[in-house]
Amino acid sequence: MSATAAESVVARLAERVKELDLLHAVAHALSDDVAPVEAVLEDVIARLPAAFVDPDATTAWAELDDPELGTHTIGTRGAPGPVRERTVSPTGVLTMGLTVRGVATTPVLAEEERLLDSVADLVTGWLRGRHAERVNARMRAELERRGNVRQALLETFRRVLTGVDGTEVADLVLDAVLRTVPGAHMGSILVRTDHGTYRYAAVRGYDVARLTAIELPPSLVLFGRDWSDDAPFLVEDVVAMNALRDDDAIGRTLAEVSAAAGPVQALVAPIEADGALLAAISVERRATDEPFGSDAPELLRLYARSVGALFLRAERDARTELLARAVDASSDAIAVVDVPRRSRQLVFQVANPALARFLGIDRADLANWDPFSGLGPATVARGFRALREAIRSDAPARFQVPLRRPDGDRIWLEVVLSRLEQDADRVRVLIALRDVTILRSQLVELQRLNDDLHERLSEAGTLEAIDAAITAGDERRSTLRRVATAIAGRPGIAQTLVHVSANGTTGGSEPRLTTVATAYAPPDDEGPSAGAREAARTGRPVEGHDGDHGWRAWPLVSKGTLVGVLEVVLHAGFEPDAAWSRFLGVVAGQTAIAIENATTLERLRLAAEAYADLAEFSGRIEELDDADDLIDHGVHSLMQTFGLDAAIHFRRHEDRLVPVRRWGVFLDPSLPDPAALAIGEGAVGQAAISGEAVYVERYQAWPHAASHPAYAGIQMVLGLPVHTGDRVDQAIALHAVGRPATLRPDQVTIAKAFVRRLERALERAAAQHQIEATREEAFRALGLALEFRDYETRGHTDRVVALARRLGERIGFGEDDLEPLAWGAYLHDIGKIAIADAVLLKPGSLNAEEYAEVMRHAVIGHDMTRDLTFLPEASREVVRSHHERWDGSGYPDGLAGNAIPRMARLFALVDVYDALVSERPYKHAWSAADARTELAANAGTQFDPDLTSVLLALLQEDAAARPALKRTDRSTGSGRRGRRR
Q1: Tens of pLDDT, residues 721-745
Q2: How many helices (DSSP H) and strands (DSSP E) are in the chain?
Q3: How far is CA 483 from CA 163, 362, 447, 906, in A?
Q4: Fewest 10 Å CB contacts: which of 149, 586, 791, 825?
């Protein structure tokens, strides 16, 4: 071996020696079983770097995170080096590693990483041992506590069962709980009473007298918590919880007692038995006491589960004692027997003296009494069935049996069996006996009275349902359907039909019946039955049979008038008695009232709707002024209101009525249009003679019916005359075509009211047209008067008004704009009235002062029209501003562009054009072409350019529509403006 190889071997041996020394030192450090975990880890980490190649550049660190051993961090992490992670426990982890400092440090060797693994394994094993010691110690403590609990429970059971000192169960249990549950220093036990409340049976650490004097409802026992899973729960602050319940006497007592004791925390466990809350244990600690141990809930739960049987036994003992006292004191015949689970032999327990007297035997013989002795097999079997039912159910089982007493009397007994309690071996049952002999006979009579009462109540219900239908205010068909349904609910009735009379006849004449309501059957397509028609004709009830089914029909009469027939079809085999028939007679009277009331309401409703339509029509015609529009609107309203098919409007021409318009659809569209009628022919002809409305329900059978084929399909007609003053100049005929129809008197009255309103509207429209025509003529006359005064403008007024209207229509003016425009055109020069003749009619040129006088006519005209309140402001604007110019150089206000009222701009164009093409004393008339050229040349300076374009297009159309006129030389004229403008 060379020297170099020998040195290498020596070096490796030296490293192994260092490793062994380190592992020995670590093992020595881990041998200390009592040193703190963190101190041992620090010792190990301090030794670790010395075993590495570069101890100065290497530091070791460790982190332990374990619920049992705690969280520890030894050393400070730096740059990453080898890291080893080991599991200490199911929830604990140890992490160890090296931190290498400096760039030029020798890297960690593989042998050094194995050394780190070895150290980590040693430390992990030691930590697991420490962890196991803690778990074992805790388990030993838990076993010791559970042993203490078992010992305490055994002692408690022994004292209860032996009754050594007579201490109550609750006191024994509470003392045992407080001794063994860690952290519990005071508490109480609540137990259930016979009437479902809870009382304090044991109290420690509180005012006992105040708590035992109250009883708690179930809601306060467990602070509103659910107890079905029997888990204990923690109340963090009993004082605060009870303070929330001081709204009554019990709540205030709890709040005051808990505040005086000052507990801050309670652990509560329910005690249940047979699915019910039997009791509750509560243990408490004050703020100064040690906390509840972690195992306190489980220990308290163990107590609660274990002592339930003790409380149940105490409750049963108390019940048995109470039951014995109650049975003995009762005046009823009572006995208590036990029923073994595996035998049908009843074991007698206790009976009262009343039972012996009831059975007629000595009380000493009750011990051997067999409840089923002397009874037949069927009765015994029935008794045992009732017994099984009582055992299975919480409800008592009842049955009645006959019994022959020792003295020979036969009586009826009612036997009541009630389960008192049960366990694995037997069921305790209470038997109560009552003599119900007299009661049974009374029950038979009571049943008869009850059946009669039920029938009377049923009849009252039927009448109440009919009365409700009468007063509901529904439309007639719905009302009568409800009535029919109420009647159909009577016994024996299979179908109900209500027929309504259209003509109200009785006593021999054939009535017209319409089936309007049915129950449990659709109406017969063939109409009312022969029986219904017979009842209506004779005015008397009728009856009969149709196969297996009987039927009855009653005439319905109200105020001496037949209003309908009530018909019922009976179930097969049902034969009504006298009481049934009498009641149906009463029902028939109520049904007659229902028909009368529903018919009246329907008439009122229809009348209200018609009058509403009349009101709407009256409001609408205020907006119409055209006679044809008024008549069209009125006829449509009448047809829609009355549900009619067609209508015709006639105008009178000498001695004939000529159709001018018709509405709706007649029976045969291929027939010729309605023909003219002679005065006196048809309903409208008769109306024209009488001046009154003529209503014909069966038109084709009426002697005055029109014979023209166009009227062949008319079934009903209402002829309405339309008066102009005292004369009938127009008439309206309303028709039902191809079907029968009836108008009520109130509908005819409403139609007359429509026509009267229409007549007044037509008169108003005619008067309005006359007023407007008169006003138009007045304005025209005033304009013509100005022409006569200023002869150079003669004829000018009519021409400018006509042309202004045409131009206004071309730019979209409606009548509301055209009328003010025409009136302004008539009056545009009215201010010239105030201009002196010497100026206005001066033959020569005007000087500046005279021209200024003429210019005043625009303002004067505007002022003169101020008091004409009916004159629109737009007309007055034409008077004032028709000499304004687009460029602002006009008068009187120097307005420019769109600031000039539009109607004034329009009229200015028309006024100038007519002046150019008209002959004047100071100039010849220009040709239309030259005038158009002049207007175009001044567009945008004198005239509105847009309006100028529209007028020029209109004038061009006129020129194209007539032959060209001879051109007139304009050279001798005085210019485009004229002399008096």
Answers
A1: 888 777 888 888 888 888 888 887 7
A2: 27, 26
A3: 78, 68, 31, 75
A4: 791
